[in-house]
């Protein structure tokens, strides 16, 4: 006790603004549930596992720690499970994680001799008691950040509900026996709350569902709200109300009143239909879910180094699947595990290692690859006072700190919403490259990077070469190259027959298009015609031919299948297609040959000609607008953005853009900003199915706003990429340097597949399959097992390793 009193100056009572870590070690994945518990530094409020707390003592000299140890409570095995209502894991309404309950014990520890003082105890100094109480009462920093990021997909109140007009046409809805007034379908029926029409819902891709009569009725009438019959019960909040203009399931606070208008007594109705969320969940837990997750298969669990699962933080599977594949590569394994000592990384880290990306990458690598946490989960035996392993699962590690630091600069990844694994992969490699800036010999991301060269052949016979660097090869899927046309034709006939009979297609009857990977690679390399290309040789617009090739072959080649296309409302829709992917591919034919003998480059665009092509505001129109009281800068922007069309057009533009966040940005800065396009946003638009050059042009035209860029593309369906490609010639001033990148032969072996289950990037689940130790393993969050039938034909991202000649 005297030793504790002599160190009271090293004890702090935490303020409300202090971040207190008490759920996980900041340099390992030890937690209060680990064998040695967790030690919380009572000066910095950072937490450390049993094997690492002495490192902190040596680095900081802080001797006083709060020790927290949790032991599992015994829970009855017959506890009822709740039915999931959201396509998510580990969140309210989603699939249960079946988290056990724990008892918690506390003590005060003084280093370096690990002197233990019990808590609670009246003998402890008041400052220590207050400090411990404050630490235990505070919300942990890990949990606080998670709560701040989480925005649950709860239904919002419709803006159309409070003033909904209802037409009295004498319609009274019976309590049962409903059918669509247009096709007599008796399920998936929706009651329009304006006129009382009962119509069937949307048709699914496989022929199931309705015949689109409800949404067609909305398009004809504009009546906004409909409720799904069969979901109305005494619990009106559970009823499925859909708003067509808001394109989402919504809450209708006046639903009881709106139903009573058509004579519906909701208190007596029973639930007979799935809600939209339940139907989506049901569809996604059927064929694709089972196939990709290998549900129903007798999967052998795997444990040990390299077989550590990742706990789902709530829609974090996109991150888990991606990092499992990336950290299985030799480059990342060497950089952050084999050649990076955990203690050295901690010593080099700043005062708060939770904010240091290098520390958290090292921590994650050691957690995944050491095997320390890849052990069977333990269960308390009621008859023997010992813990026995459960053979079919492991607890895995929680990548909470890693997620916070890797996503710190990205608002979407900082949230708890589902994200696109491709976009995360690119963001991850970008952050790794930044943290290793200036030290290419240490940067493992460069093993994924390669050069791409576009060759543009003008009708004049002259050529231009554009070069760029990339991490992924994004491939269109040529559906006209399907290899199972006969089976598809038979399936479409079957769908028509089933539809006429009012029957649904069974899962085992579904036939999907099957396209070989070779066709996708050939499509990437095939010539593409560019209309209205401005040739600096002809000084006129003409037609050009563009072909693409690779200037270097990376150690690891990542292929992205463009399975998501844009549907109405700019919602990404997933192509339902299989890709035949061989274990070995050869892309040697895709190497770009550069400038060929006898070829002549298109002349460069003179600087004065580029300047002369820029639109300058007509001062006469600007003066007219200024005289009306508008700001001169705003007037100049309006005139430029309407191409000097006139005062009326400029004023209309001005009135609709007065609230733009960049309305006060000087035109010169705006031009500079327009030249710089965020590559991650370009990849996002590419994943929607747009060409890269069109995506770049759209982002430049919309100041980098993805939503505005998408709007621009749809508003300019004939948009040409020629303006951005006008006679760009090979130039050392603008050509990226790929001479220092890894390069080699073009033969590659498949070693990883990231698959997606769900209808769009905004929902669903990601799973990774990785070839390790000569066999395929499935990584499904914290579940790791030997794969029996890896779904190689259902991948979203394919990872290949170059075979050295």
Task: Give the C-level CATH assignment of the domain at 1-75 and 98-153.
Answer: Alpha Beta
Number of strands: 29
Instruction: Report Rg.
Output: 31 Å
- Name the structural class: alpha+beta
Q: Which stretches are low in confidence, meaning pLDDT under 50 for 5 or more residues running?
A: 146-153, 283-287, 380-390, 717-734
| Full CATH superfamily name of the domain at 1-75 and 98-153 | Zinc/RING finger domain, C3HC4 (zinc finger)
Q: How far is the N terminus from the C terminus?
A: 68 Å
The share of residues in helices is 25-40%
What CATH architecture of the domain at 1-75 and 98-153 would you give? 2-Layer Sandwich
Give a short account of the largest sheet.
8 strands, mixed
CATH topology of the domain at 1-75 and 98-153: Herpes Virus-1
Beta-strand portion reads: 15-25%
* Average of pLDDT: 81
Overall shape: globular
Number of distinct helices: 25
């Amino acid at each position: 006790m005297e030793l504790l009193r002599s160190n009271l100056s090293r004890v702090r009572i935490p303020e409300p603004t202090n971040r207190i870590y008490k759920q996980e070690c900041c340099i390992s994945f030890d937690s209060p549930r680990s064998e040695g518990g967790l030690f919380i530094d009572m000066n910095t409020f950072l937490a450390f596992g049993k094997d690492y707390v002495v490192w902190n003592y040596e680095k900081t000299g802080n001797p006083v720690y709060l020790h927290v140890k949790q032991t599992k409570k015994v829970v009855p095995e017959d506890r009822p499970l709740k039915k999931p209502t959201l396509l998510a894991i580990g969140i309210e309404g989603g699939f249960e994680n079946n988290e056990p309950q724990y008892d918690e014990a506390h003590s005060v520890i003084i280093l370096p001799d690990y002197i233990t003082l019990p808590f609670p105890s009246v003998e402890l100094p008041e400052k220590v008691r207050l400090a411990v109480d404050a630490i235990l009462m505070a919300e942990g920093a890990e949990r606080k950040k998670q709560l701040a990021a989480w925005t649950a997909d709860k239904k919002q109140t419709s803006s159309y509900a409070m003033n909904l007009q209802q037409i009295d046409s004498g319609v009274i809805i019976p309590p049962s026996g409903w059918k669509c007034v247009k096709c007599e379908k008796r399920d998936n029926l929706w009651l329009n709350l304006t006129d009382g029409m009962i119509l069937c819902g949307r048709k699914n891709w496989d022929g199931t569902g309705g015949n689109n009569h409800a949404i067609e009725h909305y398009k004809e009438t504009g009546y906004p709200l409909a409720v799904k019959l069969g979901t109305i019960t005494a619990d009106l909040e559970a009823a499925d109300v859909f708003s067509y203009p808001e394109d989402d399931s919504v809450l209708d606070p006046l639903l009881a009143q709106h139903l009573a208008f058509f004579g519906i007594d909701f208190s007596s109705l029973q639930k007979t239909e799935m809600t939209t969320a339940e139907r989506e969940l049901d569809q996604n837990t059927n064929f694709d879910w089972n196939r990709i997750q290998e549900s129903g298969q007798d999967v052998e669990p795997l444990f040990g180094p390299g077989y550590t699962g990742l706990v789902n933080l709530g829609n974090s599977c996109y991150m888990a699947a991606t990092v499992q594949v990336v950290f299985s590569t030799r480059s990342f394994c060497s950089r952050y595990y084999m050649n990076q000592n955990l203690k050295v990384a901690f010593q080099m880290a700043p005062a708060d290692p939770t904010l240091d990306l290098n520390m958290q990458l090292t921590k994650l690598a050691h957690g995944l690859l050491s095997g320390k946490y890849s052990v069977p989960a333990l269960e308390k035996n009621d008859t023997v006072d010992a813990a026995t392993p459960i053979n079919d699962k492991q607890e895995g590690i929680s990548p909470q700190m890693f997620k916070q630091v890797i996503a710190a600069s990205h608002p979407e990844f900082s949230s708890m919403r589902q994200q696109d694994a491709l976009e995360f992969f690119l963001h991850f490699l970008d952050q790794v490259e930044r943290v290793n800036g200036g030290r290419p010999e240490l940067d493992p991301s460069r093993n994924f990077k390669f050069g791409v060269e576009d060759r543009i052949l003008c009708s004049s016979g002259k050529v231009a070469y554009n070069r760029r660097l990339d991490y992924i090869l994004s491939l269109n899927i040529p559906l006209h190259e399907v290899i199972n046309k006969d089976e598809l034709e038979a399936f479409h006939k079957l769908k028509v027959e089933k539809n006429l009979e009012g029957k649904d297609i069974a899962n085992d009857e579904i036939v999907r298009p099957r396209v070989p990977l070779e066709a996708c690679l050939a499509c990437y390399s095939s010539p593409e015609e560019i209309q209205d290309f401005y040739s600096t040789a002809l000084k006129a617009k003409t037609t050009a031919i563009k072909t693409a090739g690779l200037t270097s072959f990376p150690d690891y080649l990542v292929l992205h299948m463009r399975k998501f296309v844009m549907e109405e409302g700019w919602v990404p829709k997933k192509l339902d297609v299989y890709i035949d992917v061989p274990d070995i591919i050869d892309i040697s034919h895709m190497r770009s040959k550069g400038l060929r003998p006898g070829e002549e480059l298109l002349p460069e665009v003179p600087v004065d000609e580029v300047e002369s092509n820029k639109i300058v505001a007509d001062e006469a129109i600007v003066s007219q607008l200024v005289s009306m009281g508008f700001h001169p800068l705003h007037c100049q922007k309006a005139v430029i953005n309407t191409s000097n069309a006139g005062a009326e057009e400029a004023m209309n533009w001005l009135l609709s853009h007065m609230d733009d966040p960049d309305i006060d940005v000087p035109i010169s800065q705006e031009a500079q900003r327009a030249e710089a396009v965020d590559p991650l946003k370009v990849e996002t638009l590419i994943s929607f199915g747009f060409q890269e050059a069109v995506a770049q042009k759209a982002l430049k035209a919309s100041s980098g706003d993805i939503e505005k860029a998408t709007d621009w593309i749809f508003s300019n369906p004939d948009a040409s990429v020629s303006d951005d490609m006008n006679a760009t010639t090979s130039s050392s001033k603008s050509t990226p340097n790929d001479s220092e990148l890894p390069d080699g032969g073009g033969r590659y072996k498949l070693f990883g597949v990231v698959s997606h289950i769900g209808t769009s990037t905004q929902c669903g689940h990601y799973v990774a399959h990785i070839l390790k130790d000569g066999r395929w393993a499935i990584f499904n969050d914290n579940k790791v097992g030997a794969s029996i039938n890896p779904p190689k034909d259902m991948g979203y991202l394919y990872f290949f390793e170059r075979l050295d000649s």
